[in-house]
Amino acid sequence: QVQLVESGGGLVQAGGSLRLSCAVPGRIFSGSTMGWFRQAPGKEREFVAAAGWSTGTTNYRDSVKGRFTISRDNAKNMVYLQMNSLKPEDTAVYYCNARSILTQTVYWGQGTQVTVSS
Predict the structure, then answer these.
(1) Do the Cβ atoms of 87 and 2 come closer than 8 Å?
(2) E strand or H helix that includes residue 29
(3) What is the torsion angle, in degrees rounded to the nearest 10, for the CA atoms of residue 82, residue 86, residue 88 and residue 89?
(4) Nearest Cα to 93, choosing from 32, 20, 26?
(5) pLDDT for 13-38, tens place per residue?
(6) Closest of 81, 107, 112, 109 to residue 28, by C-alpha
(7) Mind listing the pLDDT tens digit for each residue in 62-116?
C-alpha cells in the first residue's frame, strides 16, 4: 500500500506559522500533481493547494492565497506547505495528496493535525 507520510502539524497561536512536509514514494512522486487538502470537524475535505509536476504551476484556494505556499523538491520526493499568518479557521487535519497525471490514480497520506488558537 502506498504511503504518503505527513509531518509538521501542531498547535500554534493565530498569526503564527507552520511548515508541513510530505514524503512520497519516488514512483508516485514522479509524474504526479501534488496537493494539500484539509478537513475540519464536521466539514467536508477541501482543497488547499496544488503544485504541478513539470510546469511548476501552483493553485490555491482563495482563503489561503498570500498566506500559504506549496512547494515540491523533486530531488527528494518531498512536498511542503508553508503556512503563515495562520487563523483559527485554518484548524483542520491536513492531508497530502498525489494524483498521477497518467492514470489519475489518487493517493492520500494519513493526515496531520493543525490547530490554531485565537
Answers:
(1) no
(2) helix 26-29
(3) -60
(4) 20
(5) 999 999 999 999 988 888 899 999 99
(6) 107
(7) 999 999 999 999 899 999 999 999 999 999 999 999 999 999 999 999 999 999 9
* Residues whose CB is less than 8 angstroms from the CB of residue 95 and which lie 6 or more positions away in sequence, other chains included: 6, 36, 37, 38, 39, 45, 108, 109, 110, 111
Question: What is the C-alpha separation between 69 and 60, in angstroms, rounded?
Answer: 8
User: Which cell numbers in the block locate residue 95?
Assistant: 492531508
**Sequence-distant (≥ 6) Cβ neighbours of residue 73 within 8 angstroms:** 79, 80
Ramachandran angles phi, psi of 36, nearest 5°: -125, 135
Q: Which helix (H) or strand (E) holds 112?
A: strand 112-117
What's the pLDDT at 53? 80
Closest to 89 (Cα-Cα) out of 38, 18, 36, 20: 38
